[in-house]
């Protein structure tokens, strides 16, 4: 009568283990740092493995130039570079945790998972 309950309990344990690993992964990704730069290092943007921008540094001479359009372009370029590096770093970490297995939808699930919400 209750033969299927053992399978359900096993699946629930696997799900709980996976949630624990996802929380651990998010914590680890939050500690990773990636930097993007543009304009010969005049603009630097730092992002973490969760693809959140942590900081922007702009060389004083660039600020003094008064060229707003160039500054906007350099910030955009440096930000995109930092986020690209963060995505690549997160993918590397993910492959280490999953043992190189390509689990469909896992990247998307982790990108939506926030243990602090």
From TrEMBL:
<dbReference type="InterPro" id="IPR036894">
    <property type="entry name" value="YbaB-like_sf"/>
</dbReference>
<dbReference type="InterPro" id="IPR004401">
    <property type="entry name" value="YbaB/EbfC"/>
</dbReference>
<dbReference type="GO" id="GO:0043590">
    <property type="term" value="C:bacterial nucleoid"/>
</dbReference>
<comment type="subunit">
    <text>Homodimer.</text>
</comment>
<comment type="similarity">
    <text>Belongs to the YbaB/EbfC family.</text>
</comment>
<keyword id="KW-0963">Cytoplasm</keyword>
<dbReference type="Pfam" id="PF02575">
    <property type="entry name" value="YbaB_DNA_bd"/>
</dbReference>
<comment type="function">
    <text>Binds to DNA and alters its conformation. May be involved in regulation of gene expression, nucleoid organization and DNA protection.</text>
</comment>
<dbReference type="GO" id="GO:0005829">
    <property type="term" value="C:cytosol"/>
</dbReference>
<protein>
    <recommendedName>
        <fullName>Nucleoid-associated protein Pan161_08110</fullName>
    </recommendedName>
</protein>
<keyword id="KW-0238">DNA-binding</keyword>
<dbReference type="GO" id="GO:0003677">
    <property type="term" value="F:DNA binding"/>
</dbReference>
């Amino acid at each position: 009568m209750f033969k299927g309950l053992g399978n359900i309990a096993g699946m629930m344990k696997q799900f709980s283990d996976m949630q624990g690993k996802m929380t651990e992964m998010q914590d680890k990704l939050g500690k990773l740092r990636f930097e993007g730069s543009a304009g010969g290092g005049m603009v630097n943007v730092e992002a973490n493995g969760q693809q959140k921008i942590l900081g922007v540094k702009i060389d004083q001479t660039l600020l003094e130039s008064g060229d707003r359009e160039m500054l906007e372009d350099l910030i955009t370029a440096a930000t995109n570079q930092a986020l690209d590096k963060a995505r690549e770093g997160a993918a590397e970490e993910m492959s280490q945790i999953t043992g190189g297995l390509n689990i469909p939808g896992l990247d998307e699930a982790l990108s939506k998972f926030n243990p602090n919400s």
